[in-house]
Inverse folding.
């Protein structure tokens, strides 16, 4: 009986000795496989983000292009390349890249507002009744739809928002306040500052 038990024990030991290396080999294969995948993914992500960062870097030529286009967005690729002393093709590709990356957001015509009877500019500060996220988001959603509001800023201090409003005259501004702005929910109080004259108006950024 004891001899039989001893033989079984030896048999189990031999099987265990044989199985352990197999388990170790499979573990090594499994770890190696997924470590390789991890390394490849890491290299891919690093390459991807390096490329994205590279696209976002502006060199001296990019900045020169932006300065010229800010001064005159009507410049053709040929005219722009002539000013930069470069061939048209790389200049065209750079402009397209700046547009694609969102550095150039768009092209507009700047209009003399007085010549289109928009003589009155007003900065209107607004204080909200409630400052909950949902209430603030609702105000922003509604105020950006108003055509008279040229710009809207979320500000610090006594008030919550500042609106830049352009209208024809005081009567039109009063109608805007009563019929449009006052209809928005959650407005606690407003304070209007009227622009008497524009001393400096600039659209081009220093680059």
């Amino acid at each position: 009986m004891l001899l039989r038990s001893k033989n079984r024990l030896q048999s189990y030991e031999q099987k265990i000795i044989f199985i352990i290396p197999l388990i170790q080999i499979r573990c090594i294969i499994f770890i190696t496989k997924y470590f390789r995948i991890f390394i490849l993914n890491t290299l891919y992500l690093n390459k991807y983000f390096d490329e994205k960062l590279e696209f976002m870097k502006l060199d001296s030529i990019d900045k020169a292009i932006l300065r010229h286009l800010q001064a005159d967005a009507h410049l053709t690729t040929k005219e722009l390349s002539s000013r930069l002393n470069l061939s048209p093709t790389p200049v065209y590709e750079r402009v397209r890249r700046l547009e694609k990356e969102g550095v150039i957001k768009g092209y507009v015509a700047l209009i003399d507002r007085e010549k289109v009877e928009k003589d009155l500019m007003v900065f209107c500060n607004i204080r909200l009744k409630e400052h909950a996220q949902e209430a603030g988001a609702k105000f922003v959603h509604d105020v950006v739809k108003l055509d008279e509001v040229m710009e809207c800023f979320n500000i610090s201090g006594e008030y919550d928002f500042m609106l830049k409003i352009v209208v024809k005259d005081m009567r039109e501004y009063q109608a805007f306040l009563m019929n449009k702005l006052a209809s928005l929910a959650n407005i606690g109080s407003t304070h209007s500052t009227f622009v008497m004259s524009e001393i400096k108006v600039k659209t081009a950024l220093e680059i």
Remarks:
- The two ends are 94 Å apart (CA to CA).
- The mean pLDDT is 84.
- Residues 55 and 127 are 41 Å apart (CA to CA).
- The domain at 113-194 is CATH 3.30.70.920 (Alpha-Beta Plaits).
